[in-house]
Amino acid sequence: MKHEESGRLTRDGIRLYQREDFAGMRAAGALAAQILDEVADLVEVGQTTGALDDFIRNRVEQAGATSATIGYKGYQHASCISVNHVVCHGIPGDKKLKDGDILNIDVTVIVDGWFGDTSRMYVAGRLPRKAERLIDVTHESLMKGIAAVKPGNTFGDIGHAIQSYVEANRMSVVRDFCGHGLGRVFHAPPNVLHYGRPGTGPELEEGMFFTIEPMVNLGRAETKVLGDDWTAVTRDKSLSAQFEHSVGVTEDGVEIFTLSPANRFHPTWAEN
Ligand code: MF3
Ligand code: CO
Ligand code: CO
């Protein structure tokens, strides 16, 4: 279905959506977050990432929604599942999860033409101490980035909030992938960098919809893409983590469209 464009574009080509458009993003974000809540129950030692993806595909269908990733640039799955040193765009398959594996599951759904894009970390079995620290720092860096979202601040303020927190914890921010505008499209301007200097980049305005999705490595920031043309890994094989929210700029701050309905956004809280 083709949808009418809403609002207008800034000089930087960033769409400013209208007040009534927030409801569409809320519905799409809520479904994506709900599915990430539910899949937590299936993450366990011996499970395959392919089976997790099958569950997600079925849930999207059952909700009467559409997966944004199936058919996107030839991608054939309803999620990206990135285990251990995989940074992002891991392809679900028949490899079984082992005790202590950490994984990011990234889901994007389309509900009534609106895109909801979110990802979180999970663990199979026991969470190793170093992985827990990485996951905590990565999640906190996302929340610090979101806290910088309000009209008058800039995209550089978001990147700086993330980078300074990550580096203060002696971890590194991946530079090779970024967040993105979204709304009635999957990927739109601007590129939302997870590093930067305060006061630089486009100014945030009410009605901007975008993702923030920092990838953080225990080792160095450099990544490479494997021969399947999707799977991105850390060059030094160090562990990597990522969290992603879809957000909208409000009159005086930010609305997070993809919060976990059951507060299950952290691997150690997922058991509750
Ligand atoms: N959901 C990813 C993002 O955060 C994009 C995945 S594209 C895919 O932007 F084709 F790899 F699924
Ligand atoms: Co995204
Ligand atoms: Co995503």
Explain what you see:
The chain has 272 residues and is an alpha+beta fold. The chain has four helices and 17 strands. It is 24% helix and 25% strand. It starts with 7 loop residues before the first strand and ends in a 16-residue tail after the last strand. The model has no long low-confidence stretch (mean pLDDT 96).
List the helices and strands and how they pair.
Layout: E1 8-9, E2 15-16, H1 22-39, H2 49-62, E3 66-67, E4 79-83, E5 86-88, E6 102-111, E7 114-123, H3 129-147, H4 155-168, E8 172-173, E9 179-181, E10 188-192, E11 209-212, E12 215-217, E13 223-225, E14 232-234, E15 240-242, E16 245-249, E17 254-256
Antiparallel strand pairs: 1-2, 3-6, 4-6, 5-14, 6-7, 8-12, 9-10, 11-16, 12-15, 13-14, 16-17
Helix pairs in contact: 1-2, 3-4
The structure holds 2-amino-4-trifluoromethylsulfanyl-butyric acid (MF3) and cobalt (II) ion (2 copies).
One cobalt (II) ion binds at residues 106, 108, 117, 119, 244.
Essential attributes:
about 270 residues, alpha+beta, 4-stranded antiparallel β-sheet, 3-stranded antiparallel β-sheet, 4 helices, 17 strands, about 25% helix, binds 2-amino-4-trifluoromethylsulfanyl-butyric acid, binds cobalt (II) ion
